[in-house]
Amino acid sequence: MRTRLSILTWPKPKGGPHHAICHYCDTVHVAEPIPEGSRANCILCGATLFQNRPASLARVTSFSLTALLLMLVVHTAPFVSMDAGGMWTELTLPGAAKALIDDGTPLVGFGVALFTIVTPLILAGGLVYVCGPLMLGRLAPGAMFVTRWMSRSEPWNMIEVFLLGVLVSLLKLGKVAELHFGIGFWAFAGLMFCMAGAVAAIDKRELWDRLEVARGG
Predict the structure, then answer these.
(1) Domain of 11?
(2) Cα-flanking dihedrals φ and ψ of residue 5, to 5°?
(3) H or E stretch at 33
(4) β-sheet bridge partners, residue 90
(5) Tens digits of per-residue pLDDT, 2-49?
(6) Both 95 and 121 in a single domain?
């Protein structure tokens, strides 16, 4: 009974048989439903084909909602404060992007805004919009279109790269100024983990299967 209920947590579209292709050796497999919490592996090379992650929709929605709330803090609260020779400077994340643009490096400034503000917002907002209704078996208007854009924006979500660059820069600045991490910095660190958790919470194959079933396919 446990196995049957677990399989039903990932509904399959009508028709079939459904197939999965290994991304490493191109072996074609018949994609049968698998129990919740397990994964399907390639019979030739052993690579993972797809996974049925536990409570996937609830987890991705929770992580994404938390990420959106943290974005409010990141974009409004001080990110870092610096005291250098009596001169006190305080920056937020949007303020840092604007400062880079005003200082003559617009390409870097727009890149910071795109990869750390716009792209995470599209990804987290899109996951909530798509996966929230799917928990009720419903398809949000334009969900297919939004999911395609989420897939395209996912590689451009570079929060962890930006955070690593900030830490390296702050280590150098720490020798000439007194630095204070603001609430925005710690919220940004939490945002990084939430975005990683949201993306990892659901298998892409499962997401598309759920969308097809909700559409009536």
Answers:
(1) 2-51
(2) -65, -35
(3) none
(4) 81
(5) 333 333 467 777 766 778 888 889 888 888 777 777 888 888 898 888
(6) yes
Is the pLDDT score of 86 beyond 70?
no
Q: How far is CA 22 from CA 19, 40, 46, 180, 205, in A?
A: 10, 10, 9, 48, 13
Cis peptide preceding 17, ω within 30 of 0: yes
Q: Are residues 128 and 178 in the same domain?
A: yes
Q: Report whether the peptide linkage leading into residue 120 is cis, meaning its omega lies within 30 degrees of zero.
A: no
3-state SS class at 91: strand
Token readout for 14 is: 């009508």
**Structure token digits, residue 136:** 């009720």
DSSP alpha helices (H): ranges in the chain?
A: 2-8, 56-76, 93-102, 106-113, 119-134, 143-153, 159-173, 183-200, 204-215
What is d(CA 159, CA 136) in angstroms, rounded to the nearest whole number?
Answer: 31
Number of residues that this document lists for the chain: 217
Range with the largest mean pLDDT of 10-24, 155-169, 195-209: 195-209
